Amino acid sequence: MFNRTSLQAAAALASISLLSGCSVFSDSESAADQRIVVGTTSSPTTLDPAAAWDNSWELFRNVFQTLVAFPTGSTIPQPDAADCAFKQGSSSRVYECKIHDGLTFSNGHKLDAEAVKHSIERIRTIDADGGPNGMLGSLDKIDVLDPQTVVFRLNQPDATFPFVLATPAMSIVDPAEYPADKLREDGKLLGSGPYVLDSYTEGDKAELTRNQSYKGFAERKNGGVTIRYFKESEPMVAALKKKEIDATYRGLTAAEVVDLQADKPENQSLQLVESTGADIRYLVFNAKDSTAAKPAVRKAIAQLVDRDELVSKVYQGTAEPLYSMVPKGIAGHTTKFYDRFGSPDAAKAKSILRKAGITETVKLDFWYTTDRYGSSTAAEFAELKRQLEASELFEVTLHGKPWKEFQKGYQKGEYPVFGRGWFPDFPDPDNFIAPFVGKENVLGTPYVSPEITGELLPKSRRESDRGAVTDEFTQAQEIMVQDVRLLPLWQGKLYIAASEDIAGGERALDPQTVMQMWELSRRTSW
C-alpha cells in the first residue's frame, strides 16, 4: 500500500539516522547485488568538479571522495579520505589532513597528498565561470609534508573551511586524468568513490557500478545505479508508476506530490519520503539594471509579495513561506523580512514608490529557469506577476530559459530580476549569506556590503562553535533586509518517491541534500 514518511527539518540535517535504527530491510547478498534505477530532472552541467557549484554534485558525491564528508546523520564533517583537524594554537588557520592508507583511484593510480593539492589548486587556477573557486576565499596555500599529509594554510581564521572541503566541489581527482590548468573535456569522469561511472549520455542517463577498489565510509546496499535524466517531471512520475524506474529525487511538482499522496489504485505500490529541507528559493535584483537598481522598486516588491498565497496556490503545502535567507532548521534563522514589511500591502508599496518620486507604472522583466527546479517554477512566476500587477504599480514581463542558457545570462548580468534556488553546500548559516555577497558571488550580480564581508563574516568564522554565531548572522540579515538585493520567497520540503520495495529513502539525503545512492536497496523481506 501507499506509505508516507515525514521527517522534520532537523531530521533532514541531523536525526535522520534514528529512523533507520530498527530497519526491517534485509541487506542480504541478493539485495546488495541488484541495480537501482533512479530518475531526476536535475542533470549535471559539467563532469569536472572544478567547474561545478550546482546539482552536478549529485553525481560527484557517488563517484568521487573528499577529504571529509557528511555521512547520514552527521552535521559536522567526518573522515572520508582522511582524518583532518585544525592544528592546536592555529586559531582555525592551519588545517591538517592525514590521508588514509591504501587509497587508489578506480584506475589503480595512488590517491596521495599530491593528488589532493592538485585537485584543490586546479579549482583556483582554472577559476571556471559558475565554478566553486569562490568557496576557497580563505585559502592561502597548500603544503604537502609527505605522501600522506597535506596542510591547508588559511589567510584568516575560518572555522567553516572543513565544511567547504566536505562539499563535492572539492572532489579528489587523479592528476593524470585532470589537467592542472584546464577542464577535462573528454566526457569522462574518474574518481575513488563508491561507484565507477561506466557510461554517461548527457540529458539521458548515467550508469554507475561498484568501485571494487573503494575504501571509505559508504556501505553500498545495491550492486549499482542507473540515473535517468528527465527534462520534465511528468514523464518521470509516469516512469515510476510503470516501474521503469525505482525512485525519484528532485523535480517533483507540488501537484505531483499531492497526487502521489492520494489514495488511488496506481499509488498503492508507491511510497513517499518527506523531509523539510534547507533548500530555498529567492529573487535576485540586479543593481546594474536602471530600474532594479532603485531601492524603492525593490522595497515595493518586498511589500507586495504574498508568500502565503504563493505557497498555497503553487506549492499546495509542499513548501513554507521564508522571511530570511537563512532557513528554518539552521542556526541564525530569523523572520527579518516579515518584521520589516509585515503583511502584503499595496497602499504601503505605493507610498514607498511615491516618496521616491516614482509615479508611473514600473516595468520589469522577470527571468526564471524552465528545467532546473521543477515544473512548478513557471506557475510560481506567473503568480508573482499576478500579485505585482494586481497592485497596478507594476507591469511584469516573464521570460523562461533552460538552465544552461539561463545560467549564462545571469552570470553576464543580463537579467534585471531573476529567480534562483539554493541547495546548501553545508548546514551552516555562513552558507546562506557568504555565497551571495561580495563583488564576485554565485549570482553574477555584485553585491557589495563591507559590513557583512569585512566584519560580520570574518568574526563568525573565528568561532568554532557554530551554534554561537547567531548575533553575527542576525545582523547580516538585517542589512540584507535594508538593501533588498535578495528577496527570500519560500523554503522547500524534499521528497523521494519510490516503489514500495525500495528501502533506504529516509537515509539517502545527506545534510547537503545530495543523494547518497548507496543507501538505496531492494527489500527482500516484509
Notes on the protein architecture:
This protein is an alpha/beta fold and 526 residues long. It has three domains: 3-46 and 188-275 and 495-522, Periplasmic binding protein-like II (D-Maltodextrin-Binding Protein, domain 2, 3-Layer(aba) Sandwich), CATH 3.40.190.10; 49-170, D-Maltodextrin-Binding Protein, domain 2; 276-492, Roll (Dipeptide-binding Protein, domain 3). Helix content is 27%, strand content 23%. It contains 15 helices and 20 strands. It has helices spanning 9-15, 29-33, 57-63, 113-126, 161-165, 233-241, 254-261, 295-304, 307-315, 336-341, 346-355, 376-390, 403-411, 450-461, 470-483; strands at residues 3-7, 35-40, 68-69, 78-79, 82-86, 94-99, 139-146, 149-154, 195-201, 205-210, 224-229, 247-248, 270-285, 319-321, 362-369, 394-401, 417-422, 486-499, 502-503, 521-522. Strands 1, 13, 14, 15, 16, 17 and 18 form a seven-stranded mixed β-sheet that branches. Strands 9-10-11-2-12 form a five-stranded mixed β-sheet, covered by helices on one side. Strand 5 (82-86) and strand 6 (94-99) form a beta hairpin. Helix 8 runs antiparallel to helix 11, helix 9 (307-315) packs antiparallel against helix 12 (376-390) and helix 14 (450-461) runs antiparallel to helix 15 (470-483). The two termini are 12 Å apart. 52% of the residues are buried.
